[in-house]
Amino acid sequence: MSSPVIFPFKSNINLDRKSNRHLYLQLCDQMIGFIKSGKLAPSTKLPGSRKLSDDLAIHRKTVVSAYDELISQGWIESIPAKGTFVSQDLPIIKPKKLQDSSILLEAKDTAGFTFKKRRHLIRKGIETIQATLKVDDGVPDHRLAPIDDIAKIYRNITKKAHHKKLLIYGDIYGNIELRKALVTYLNQTRGLKINIDNVLITRGSQMGIYLASQLLLNNKKIIITGNTNYMTADNTFIEADGIIKRVAVDKQGLDTNEIEKVCKKNQISAVYVTSHHHHPTTVTLSAERRMHLLDLAQQYNFAIIEDDYDYDFHYNNAPILPLACNDSQGNVIYIGGFTKIIAPALRVGYFIAPKEVVDEAARLRRILDRQGDTLLEQTLARMIQNGDVQRHSNKVRRIYKTRRDLFCQLLMEKLTDFFEFEIPKGGMAFWVKLKKPYHWDLVMVASQKQNLTFINDWRRYDNDNSGHNGFRMGFAALNEEEIEEVVEKLVRAMNSIKT
Predict the structure, then answer these.
(1) Which residues of 48-76 are buried (b: 16+ CB within 10 A; e: fewer)?
(2) Residue 62 confidence (pLDDT)
(3) What CATH number should be reported for the domain whose range is 161-388?
(4) Model-level pTM?
(5) Could you give the CA distance from residue 385 to residue 378 in angstroms, rounded to a whole number?
């Protein structure tokens, strides 16, 4: 062992007596930092507990506790009749300057290793200011969530002793009671013909999209989407190594004649469709095109990923049943969830497909996210069984329709000089096209000056860079007073850039 080195512990150790962290642990942290940085080399003799306690003006027991902790962690060792030393088994590190010791306590921005960076997942952020009014792209109003019902059922479940089994690892397919409830719920409300083997519970519909794309799109396989499409889905398909081919979207939804032309020239693995209200344009896929798309899927043996994200919110008439309800050959993967019905933070969704597809998706899900929130899934099962979900859905649909009508009225009265739009038959957003010569960049800047922020970048809706000048404005999360305020601010913003 070496002789003691002259190391200025007194001037380099700073202990904060107001901190919630014990003094002996603060001392440990800093000693470890000195060892890691090479300032205290292996085999260096440390001062005795009395000497160090005097230098630092702390109780000797604090130093003894720190040394005991460092010994237990293997940083230092005590040799009888000789003293305490930095462990001789530690690697020798080139010392750094003493004044650099603080760098060990700073957060790091850059990694000391290489890793894969996914540029396609980078989103341009929209800078917001405090107290600004925000417009989203169509999400539910979390203030309407039935939080009391959720809490009551959740408490009742957790109080029952036999429900403690929900705290252990569960089925990778999801909570059995929720899967059973979903079979009844989806068969009754969507006209599906499924059993429990066709149901996989996910953490929201996005996980379902991810699982489907991982199963279908490896090795540059082709998926067809609309020329306007849900950007997160596009990113998911690219992440799965898929190739996206786009077809036109008109007032009847995806152009299935274009899909047929693509199929005649290429081997297609899947078609992604938001059939009920196309994202972002809100148009509904017509009945004729639904049947055509199913026929093409059977003829060319591709999968249809049907993302039915807001089926429950159709205002003018009864919603059109999904493609999945007429799927006779097992070509449709039907994806949905409860985030739009209840609240975005309630991350419970479902993945409906033929059993062999569900089995494979469940195996993949096991390594991604071992299982969902079993207590929450049990709670949601009870809410479906009790009719709470259905009652809440009916309640908020009426509220959102009122908000849609008001937003539409105000846009027509005050902003038709600037915008073109169709009244959405359902969903939670308007598809608004900005008239020439105006540009969304100018609108965003002018709106910010009015304390109005659109939380998404307009570019995310122009997937094929066609310059259609469309933008998605959500109305469901705004109450009537907020809608009036949004429109007034938007009027002032547009008048400020009026040519």
Answers:
(1) ebeebbeebebeeebbebbbebbeeeebb
(2) 92
(3) 3.40.640.10
(4) 0.81
(5) 11
Choice among 91-105, 275-289, 312-326, 443-457 with the minimum mean pLDDT? 91-105
Q: What are phi and psi of 252, to 5 degrees?
A: -105, 10
Residues whose CB is less than 8 angstroms from the CB of residue 481 and which lie 6 or more positions away in sequence, other chains included: none
Q: What is the mean pLDDT of residues 348-372?
A: 93
Residues 6+ apart with CB under 8 A from 80: none
**Rounded distance between C-alpha atoms, residue 341 and residue 146, angstroms:** 10
| CA-derived radius of gyration, the chain | 30
Structurally, what CATH architecture does the domain formed by 9-105 represent?
Orthogonal Bundle (1.10)
Structure confidence by residue, pLDDT tens digits, 187-202: 999 999 999 999 999 9
Q: Other C-beta atoms within 10 Å of 252: how many?
A: 16
List, in sequence order, every beta strand (DSSP E) within 111-231.
Answer: 133-135, 199-202, 222-226
**Helix or strand run (H / E) with residue 334:** strand 332-337
Annotated domain spans of the chain? 9-105, 133-139+392-496, 161-388
What are the C-alpha distances in Å from 452 to residues 28, 128, 384, 431, 445? 50, 9, 38, 18, 9
Mean pLDDT of 480-498: 93
